Amino acid sequence: MTADYLELGNVLTRLVRVSDPELWPRQGFSPTQHATPTTTYEPWGAPERGIEQLLAAAAGLGSLHGADGAPPTERPTRAGGGDRVALVHLRGTPQTCVVGLAGLATTELTIQAALRQAGSNVAQIKSSDAADLEAQLIDVRARPLDLLVFTGPVVSTARRLVSGGGPAPRVLDSLQALYNGPVGEDAELAEVLSAVTNLQVLAPIRIDTQTLDPEPTERALAQATDKVLAADAELGILHNAGFAVHTFARAFTAAAESLAAWRRRLPTPEGPHAVGGLALIDLGGRFTEIAVVAESRASRSVDDLAQRDLMIGDAPAAGRSGPAATPPPHALLVSDIGRWLPFDWSPTGLGDHLANYLRRPFVLPATWAQLLIAMALGRQRLSRTCAGFRMASGTANWSGDWRRHVAAYVISGGYVRHLPGPAFALALAIDGIEPMGVSEIWCDRWGLSPYLAVSGRKAEPDPALYLRRLATVVAPVALRLDWRRPHEDDIMALVTVERQGGQATSFRIVPGSLMRFPLRPGEEAVLTVHPQREHDFGAGPGKAWRGRVTGGDLGLIFDTRGRPIAMPPEDLIRQAKLREWLNTLGTGVRWEDGSA
Amino acid sequence: MIPRVLGRLIRYERAVDGFRELGPGAEILVKPGQPVEPETALGSTKTGSRVVRLPLNEGELASAMVLKRPGETVRRGEPLLRRASFFGLGNTEFLCPVDGYVEEILVPQRAILIRELTSDVRAGVSGTVTSTLPDRGVTLRFDGTVMRFFAGWGPPVAGVLRLVPDLFSPADVARNLDETYRGEIVWACSTLCAEAILEAARLEVAGLLAGSVSLIELQRAAGELRQLTGRIGLPLTLVISESFGSAAMSPVYRRQLAAAVGRAVYLDPGSTADHGWARDPEIAFSPHEGATDADAEFGERSVNCTVPALVPGLRVRVVDLDAFGKQGVLVAPSEAVELETGVVVDAVEVLLEDGERVKVPTQNVELVEVGNHPAASA
Questions:
Q1: CA of A36 to nearest chain B CA: how many angstroms apart?
Q2: ipTM for this prediction
Q3: SS3 A265
Q4: Chain B, window 97-136: residues with a beta carbon less than 8 angstroms from a chain A beta carbon
Q5: Phi first, then psi: what are they for A59, rounded to 5°?
Q6: Cα A519 to Cα A52: distance, rounded to the nearest angstrom
Q7: Which helix (H) or strand (E) element contains residue A349?
Q8: Which of residues B175 and A319 earns the better pLDDT score?
Q9: Which residues, including other chains, have CB under 8 Å from residue B201's CB and lie 6 or more apart?
Q10: Does the predicted model carry a pTM greater than 0.90?
């Protein structure tokens, strides 16, 4: 029996075929893959042509690299009896417009979160901004929509929106319209909209001043999304081929919740980090998605690369006068990316290299320099996403930075898949996420967890079969490091690792270093960290951290490079340090090796 | 990995359907079935609205005189508001920063909503209007050449194509760009410097077409133009054919474009985004008088692209980052190779136009020709 997992991404359309999921060997697991750039068939074709090619290649109907090279002549059909799950990213999926008064009210935020959870694009109209209303309406009228959600009786805005025919439905015969506002004030709105659609009235999210109940709204939005996916002609080929189609967003959130539940059931670890949350992070060609679970429900956030301009940063103004323009806060700066490169670079050369890469993000890094540049971009994207992430209200009682409370990170996505070995994946994760305290780093190299979370299988395969435990990372939660000051003599903590069988090793860790302790994959040990002064390793300032930890492919990592990670200002020293850190993590270890 | 099918970069075709995007609020000036010439105006775009905040305190509203009413056209530099100043001894005028028309005067917000009016969009080719889509644009059918480029910014534009030798340095710009290029599309065969973009904007050149532009030059020019005009986007259309950097335009493009110099062309910058999911820019122009099918480079267009075999002779564009944008032909079929990073992938060997041979992952090439072109079946 086989399972086909297809992803219609913004950059790549990918089909992963796995056999006998229950029997996946843990190490060296490498499924059959076929992929093609999603833009392959545009603008003269459509993404479904790419899906067709992949299904044909997987079925062996037409071999691209075969001797004859003839294109497929048969239409691919459903494989015999196995799972078929397709996940669709935001591109082309439900398009929703939320029409409200202020744009920031609790109901609107909850609805937007629910929509994103369901995998919908969201545009917001703020009726209270009269000066900008017409411009907002013009933008919305110009693009086909699937869903209109009203969070208040904004009759005049609705009247202006539907004037001249209003927004056109994208894939359905008519727009779906939902109302979730003050009770009993929807009649006039329904009348205005009656020319284009029927208004469905939902139970209000805010029951009283203290109580919110978003579940009925979330359910209605999920149903509306399902209706759109079922009607989307672009996805017809997937339906016909027997795929269960879901939005990536929904599957990703379900995967985070499922992995968090699985980790709680594990016999280890024990100690302060056993009760911490889990973060699932997908670093894809366009979106960086993150879902964090504290108790049972995930908070999810998406960072869109399309919203981030690539800027040189300190480029002088053209002409003979004028200061350098200040880059906007959302920009990705070439100089920030370049600081992760262990070789000399120029703003012009690196800027052009990155701009070309972003224009063709499916390109595979073929040399060490290309790989390190792609990793530097990935680190910066991860860093931005993690720094901007906030838990949704009501999902966790965490104080301070959310990373202080997370005990396990699972990283996946296109940036991880083609790295040469687990050390590179770990470097990307530690440098980009900057975990705090004691936490485990896992890798879902083939991105299987979202598929398995929505596949509907009676028995979900044990995540230990397809996840790689990269390492357990120990890092102080707050350390400001200044490389201009001598610090090598400062001792941050005394560490003791007691292995099974009673063998204990003690050593010191100092600021500004990355250190690896060779705890074998799956080997358990009791870790004790005695911080010096007021350093905090997760148990509180100056308090000892003691708990059971498990080794990963790369053992146990001690990261005292600061939060955020501080780098020496001198280029030569910075480059030497970057090389040293990469070597420390074990860049010679291959995915197939499976051990530190 | 099934590589990206870029299709033909240059197509000479009969009955091409081209869409001319005018945007929301545009006024369409043609009807379905109407024949058009390159100079025919299809419509007036009203690309967006701009809120002009009036420099008034609440107490000054009563004494200030708003000189325009909703619906009235305004030009850049025209007075919008007059108020008494210096104890009534003088008048202060507030000038309109853009061309457009007044959509709404918002007294409580002390703001005027102005719908910006940009230039008319011309057909750029000889053909027939097949349909008009209110608030969207116009579809044309024409015989002609369509060339697909790498990246573009700004609004779609039509104009006469003019060749300048180079705009590589400020000295080239001073020597080669002048007032005679106003409203025309300037083609430079190599890379552009920031001063070229700034000077072209100052001269109100309609569009710039070049082989490449470096990100740093583009950013310098865009930053300065933003300071001068207050606009986020470029005030002119800029299209590059090869890559970011300093690459010269491919000889294949140059041969075709040379035939269009002095004639009207239509330049569509595609999606104005820098990323991979953006639509590629295109340039379209009608055949010159007396052109025959023998002038056609690649015959009929194939709409249903299929992935051809990766056989020697197939034309590709390399997007490997060390040889980005270079075109060439496959000289060896794909085979599994181990990259220097240790990753094993399928790779192909490509003979580039400059004679260099490179071996790159299959994922890092784009197939330029498909369907019935002789090279595809060679």
A1: 5
A2: 0.82
A3: helix
A4: 103-104, 106, 108-109, 111, 113, 134-136
A5: -85, -5
A6: 46
A7: helix A347-359
A8: B175
A9: B221, B225, B234, B235, B236
A10: no
Round to whole Å and give the CA distance between B35 and B18: 14
Signed CA dihedral, A582, A584, A588, A593: sign only: negative
Q: Which amino acid, one-letter code, is at A149?
A: V
> Which residues on B lie below 8 Å from A44 (Cβ)?
7, 303, 305
The Cα A173–Cα A138 span in angstroms is: 22
Task: Give residue A431's Cα distance to chain centre.
Answer: 15
Would you call the peptide bond into A269 cis, given omega within 30 degrees of 0 as the criterion? yes
By the 10 Å C-beta count (0-12 exposed, 13-18 middle, 19+ buried), A227 is classed as middle
Top residue of B8, B199, B343 to mutate, by most chain A CBs within 10 Å, is: B343
b/e for B156-170, b at 16 or more Cβ within 10 A?
A: bbbbbbebbebbbeb
Among A205-219, B165-179, B284-298, the minimum mean pLDDT is found in: B284-298
**Token duo for residue A561:** 């490079």
Q: Which of A65, A138, A368 sits opposite B340 (nearest CB)?
A: A368
Q: Is B287 on the interface with A (CB under 8 A)?
A: no
pLDDT of residue A443: 95
Express each pLDDT in A383-425 by its tens digit.
999 998 888 767 778 888 999 999 999 999 999 988 999 999 9
- For B205-240, the DSSP string reads -SEEEEEEE-HHHHHHHHHHHHHHH--SS-SSEEEE
A14, A495, B217, B325, B347 from B322: Cα distances, Å: 25, 45, 20, 9, 15
Q: How far apart are CA A421 and CA A188, in angstroms?
A: 61
Contact between A556 and A516 (Cβ < 8 Å): yes
Segment 332-351 of chain B within 8 Å of chain A by CB:
333-334, 339-343, 345-346
- The verdict on a CB contact (< 8 Å) between B3 and A36 is yes
Name residues whose C-beta falls within 8 Å of residue B89's C-beta, 6 or more positions apart in sequence: none
What lies within 8 Å, CB to CB, of A357 at 6+ separation is A363, A373, A374, A377, B321
Residue A331 makes CB contacts below 8 A (sequence gap 6+) with A308, A309, A310, A311, A313
Distances (CA, A) of B355 to B247, B252, B358: 16, 15, 10
With H, G, I as helix, E, B as strand and everything else as coil, classify residue A168.
coil
Chain A (284-323) residues lying within 8 Å, Cβ to Cβ, of chain B:
285-286, 305-306, 309-312, 315-319, 322
Give CA–CA dist B338/A437, Å, rounded: 38
**Residue B279: its chain A contacts at CB < 8 A?**
42-43
Q: Cα(B148)–Cα(A563) distance, rounded to whole angstroms?
A: 46
Q: Is the dihedral of CA B201, B282, B298, A51 positive or negative?
A: positive
The DSSP bridge pattern shows strands A406-412 and A277-283 to be parallel
| A52-to-A62, A238, B121 alpha-carbon distances in Å | 11, 9, 38
Question: H/E element holding B345?
Answer: strand B344-352
Tokens 């569509």 identify what position? B268
Lowest mean pLDDT among A70-79, B37-46, B246-255: A70-79
Domains along chain B?
Answer: 10-45+120-297 (no CATH), 49-116 (2.40.50), 308-371 (2.30.30.30)
State both tokens at B165. Answer: 């030798």
Q: Which of B354, B288, B287, B289 is nearest to B326 (CA)?
A: B354
